[in-house]
Structure prediction request, 967 residues.
Amino acid sequence: MRAGWEVVIGLEVHTQLATSSKIFSGASTAYGAEPNTQACLVDLGYPGVLPVLNKEVVRMATLFGLAVNATVARRSVFARKNYFYPDLPKGYQISQLELPIVEHGEMMIFDADGNEKRIGITRAHLEEDAGKSIHEGLEDKSGIDLNRAGTPLLEIVSEPDLRSAKEAVAYLRKIHTIVRYLGISDGNMQEGSFRCDANVSVRPAGQKELGTRAELKNLNSFRFIEKAINFEIERQIDLIEDGGKVVQETRLYDSVKDETRSMRSKEEANDYRYFPDPDLLPVEITDEYIEAQRATMPELPDAKQQRFVNDYELKVDDAVILAASRPLADYFEAVVSATDAKAQFAANWVIGDLMGALNRDSKDIEDSHISAVELAGLVNRIHDNSISGKIAKQVFDAMWDGEGSADQVIDAKGLKQITDSSAIEVVVDKVIAANPSQVAEYQAGKGKLIGFFVGKVMQETKGQANPGQVNKILKDKLKA
Amino acid sequence: MMELYTQTLNELSLGLEHGDFTSVELTQALLARIAAHNEKLNAFVTITSDEALAAAERADDARAKGRAGILNGLPIVHKDIFCTRGIKTSCGSRMLDNFISPYDATVVEKLAAAGAVVLGKANMDEFAMGSSNETSFYGAVKNPWDLSCSPGGSSGGSSAAVAARFTPAATGTDTGGSIRQPAALTGTVGIKPTYGRVSRYGMVAFASSLDQAGVITRTAEDAARLLGVMAGFDERDSTSIDQAVPDYTAEIGKSIKGLRVGIVRQHFDAGLDEQTGVRVKEAIAVLESMGATAIEVNLPNIDLSVPTYYVVAPAECSSNLSRFDGVRFGYRAENPEDLLDLYCRSRGEGFGDEVKRRIMTGAYVLSAGYYDAYYLKAQQVRALIADDFKKAFADVDVIAGPTVPAPAFKLGDKVDDPIQMYLNDIYTIGANLAGLPAISIPCGFVNELPVGLHLVGAHFAEASLLRAAHQYQQQTDFHRACPEGFQ
Prediction:
């Protein structure tokens, strides 16, 4: 951040709700179908058809409202946003304007100094998505795919409370986590299920009134969002410092060139002629309905993280990592419940080897080759001294490659730890006998050489001897 | 035997039941009559002879097997605003001249399921915008009572076809009077039910908060029978109302003794043709002679209904008609230069003047800076008008008055004066703004042109309206009069 300037950012997040059918029709919302195969007459805006609200979206919006401590409107109204575009079949988008379903929410994030900071959520409203225009491979023509038309969206609008690109990303990640926790969105950014527009402005530090803002569009990854906002901040400050003025406009982020470009200015903006949609009744929900939804609320990330620290005595950083994704947290807890080892020990395995393997193979926790119970089996064998931590890594890799459970791998490869003292003594005697000069040096005071002897014993036993026992027996025998 | 075409739906139903004739014979007779006389009237956009005969055969077959529905084998005509699968649904517009609907409207589906035989699609004002049928892309419909006169609109093809005995019944839609005004001008019965009583699914939308489907027939009895089939909740229309449909045909037989009939002073003010007023007062006297009581009621804001309507209806239409953009269906301009040119020329060439006038009015009243002064204000006045009716219906069962200020006007007379045209709906618009059911029934003639009595009821009081109308028709025979040249 350049000295003397303050950045003001507000975000609009479009979250695709994870319903199986569209917001106003029975057509499927599945991603990736052949163009125009998932668009029924309602989606196509045929003469005479009418929208019918999918009740599931009301439930999902209610859950979101409760999760961000917002007011869930007892009465909300759908309105028509009128404009012409080929991928907008009816010539209007059904959205909510004056009476959105969710208002006055909030979310806590950590700022750059690690302090908790409240970000206001102005509103979240339901609307339908438009279709897609296709230009590639069509020569001088344009195609229209209306599969996406009518897909339910929840547009979440923040207050202009964010003061840096990092804060913006922290806020977004948290929204992303929450919608997935609630099961109301898959949050898939590549498929466009989670999209973000950013309103960015700058002002001299201490100035009260807001600077002129630019709206950034086409931000489809957390990394691009941060880069785009940072580019835009620099652009605006440069502009003003050079005596220029920021104009209110929409700018598109180009991730290849890492820059934002003007798309359209305010003068070209549409008058959307909003008015309440006469085809749809106001959505009226009762206190009982809201309480019934509250009863189905899952534990949210903040609460879960806190519980992991309190009940499992996890390190805060590890609790944050594990609570960031509901399936990961569930996996971790399943491991903990199936093992006698300490939870932190289980967490180390989940965060370390398991997440490492998942990342390496680009897999989600749901697709892990090793189930929570199987991983607990491995952790138990370390805990009961059947194998060492080092051998365990070897067992883990074999399990990942589908060679069976921990016990099966240990048996098949004969990896069980040697804990029989007399057996270890035999090897220790052999090693001492074979290395007389090192024994002399050790006994002359070069205590570091203990590592050399341990290594030799482990080599002889193919790593299966219990390291603690080896250490103790070696030290005893070398004393003489 | 009486000629088939002169008979009402009810009479034809009895004939079919008794085996006096088959549905195929009936259908052939009416198709022949349409073929012989429609040219004089231009009542149809499409005559569906083949489909009608096939449906009649199926109906006869169903009857033979003892599976006759309540409208089995009986003829009907659909206003060309109702989507009919596989058949052109033009809405009276060049925009949809090439549009073959891939689905049936709920109304079409329900009538077909009851066994009705569709003879064709009736001409209408373009997108139901008009009161004379002169805005149709297919040319004006003529009034069977005087071929130089308008049959009213927008359901003018439906009213003319029923008056000319092409069909005993036709569907219509009513946004500001489009069923009742043509019924009045052609001496037929037209009922607009309560908003939400009949599904709007598959009806090409004009003004969604005002549009309602109904029927035009020659008797209230026939209207009761059809409405019983058409009415009811439809999960595909969120504004349709989930309330049981009464047995209208059973209700109409009851006496109107004690019926409280409201009279609104403004309905008999200066704008009303004197002789028309006399006919309407005579009709009210007939109701009184049958045991009804006339009571004066006050609708203080009713004079604001026309201006209110001409803000709300265009606003909704400007949005509803945005889907006609030349991209997916309907008229598309040839060789567009770019997207904007495609939009502008497709809509410029596809829509007629009245439709464009209303789209522009509607876009204006919704635009930034004008919304509060026009659209929002109109909605507030609309609420006041609805409230006036609500108060009035605390004291009366129905409100009676003229349907239209004067009998049928000459074609061409009001085409260049939209305000005069709009004022033709001055008595009917209130019921649409308030969502109330209303009916027009023939109550006499002025200069050999029919006059209509207008009855408005409280929400879901269709049965009261049909009963009053039916009982009135038991005492009068205006509805039996047949225009010269169509006997």
Notes: Chain B touches chain A through 45 residues (CB under 8 Å).
